[in-house]
């Protein structure tokens, strides 16, 4: 089922509005881009100061879990990719 992002676990009104502002309206849009690209688009076009929690929430939403359940190494890898850091660097 291709749900609106507002129906995905952990993505509320603010997150949905940010995603909509860059054309990400449905689960399929988010899956096609992936959370890192979606985060980059939000930062570039909508809110350059958006928290990394949005990145984690998008990944977790695609997995159907709460973002706090993402393993630290998964969060670290997402953060490093989103911020353009080499793996293993902080």
Helix vs. strand class = mainly alpha
How much helicity do the residues have? Answer: 55-70%
Spans of at least 5 consecutive residues whose pLDDT stays below 50 are: none
Write down the overall mean pLDDT: 92
* Rounded radius of gyration (Å): 12 Å
Main sheet specs: none
Beta content? under 5%
How would you summarize this macromolecular structure in one to three sentences?
By secondary structure, this protein is an all-alpha fold. The protein contains 5 helices and no strands.
Please write out the topology.
Layout: H1 13-21, H2 27-33, H3 35-45, H4 52-63, H5 72-82
Helix pairs in contact: 3-4, 3-5
Descriptive notes:
- Helices cover about 55% and strands about 0% of the residues.
- It is mainly α and about 90 residues long.
- Helix 3 packs antiparallel against helix 4 and helix 3 packs across helix 5.
- The chain is globular and about 30 Å long.
Q: Which tags fit this structure?
A:
mainly alpha, 90 residues
């Amino acid at each position: 089922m291709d749900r609106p992002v507002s129906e995905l676990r952990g993505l509320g009104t603010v997150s949905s509005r940010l995603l909509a502002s860059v054309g990400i309206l449905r689960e399929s849009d988010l899956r096609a881009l992936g959370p890192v690209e979606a985060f980059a688009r939000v930062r570039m076009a909508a809110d350059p100061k958006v928290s990394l929690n949005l990145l984690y929430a998008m990944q977790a939403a695609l997995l159907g879990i709460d973002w706090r359940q993402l393993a630290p190494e998964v969060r670290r890898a997402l953060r490093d990719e989103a911020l353009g850091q080499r793996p293993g660097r902080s």
